[in-house]
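G.,

No rush on this.
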Amino acid sequence: MNLHFLQKYLPDGGLFFIVKWLKPYACTIKITHSRRSKLGDFRYRLNGPHQISINGDLEAQLFFFVLTHEIAHLISFAAKKKILPHGKEWKCCYRDLLLESLSIYQKDFQTLVKNFSKNPKASYNAASEIVRYFSPHVPEHFFIEDLHIGHFFEYQRQTFQILKIRKKRYICKNINSGKEYLFNTCVQVRKLTCNDRE
């Protein structure tokens, strides 16, 4: 399996680990366009090579981080078929891969990776420190977890109000439709003032 096409997406030294981890397995890697719903995906196939897809527009460190997540699925499923997708086997495997390849990341990000590896999350969006690290600064935009109950904000050209917090999700009402939605803590939104809503 020739994986050298991945070099342009990866941080320096990253290809070494990808080749090492995938060497025992039949697996294809597909680079996709940006997907809002996910950054990567793993498909376990009984017949034929397994498949990993990953968004091609990710910053190099994030690309490697997400690809490591998907490779952990491959390795843990190959070892034991009947496991939960993000259960203890996957967590253990992902933790091991992250720590093995820690030197690939920049020093300031290594601290976040170490902390994340203690209990790997199933979704990138559930790790607010990592989302913040890779999120571009946009004037007048905040992470929803920086706002408080009662605040109004704009998201995808719709106006919402924060009603309450359930664990790590924010229950927000769409002002136009009256429907309630759950938001992750690290979604970027535009905070609205009284003047904005007039």
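When you get to it, here's the other one too:
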Amino acid sequence: MIKLLRSLVLAGLLGVLSAPAALAAEMGEDGLHKQDWFTITFRDMAEDIETATDEGKRLAVIFEQRGCIYCRAMHEKILSDPEVSDYIKANFMVVQYNMFGDEEVIDLDGDTLTEKSAARKWGYVFTPTIVFLPESVPEGKTVAEAAVATMPGAFGKWTFLNMFRWVQEKGYAGDEHFQKYHARIINDLREEGRLGND
């Protein structure tokens, strides 16, 4: 009986110790963490917007770079959370870009660029940076000009998830600024007992 209990405790302890590794995202050959639900495209921005819209989703482009500790934290702590990943998968088509990559990108204005020159053109300098695009293809605008919202840098679960919700709910087209929306949601979560008062 004692041997059985020791075996069960050991198995449980090993499960707990190995859990973070199970939650870790796969590492691609480009040195970027990968989610199996990210969409691989030809990086034609107009085509990607149309594809996302046809699927009843919004397009979000995420810039990352090799060795980015904030990107790693985002994948391992935020995108591994089912509440976050399930919401994003249901409502967004996410395409990953390498901040210093050489893959070809076609901007909304027709320019053909590399990922790294697109990041420079659009003014994105932090990783991760998530860019949210409109539901329809705008004429003559660049991605940076057409974006309905941009989330530069790494944030905690609720800021991250609430930005996706705010975009999905088209908060950018209304009068409630994201910060007000976020504060309201956080207050609701506290009242529901899902968050502490810290």
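The helical segments are 2-23, 45-54, 69-78, 82-91, 115-122, 143-146, 157-168, 178-191. The first helix runs from residue 2 to 23.

Enjoy the weekend,
O.
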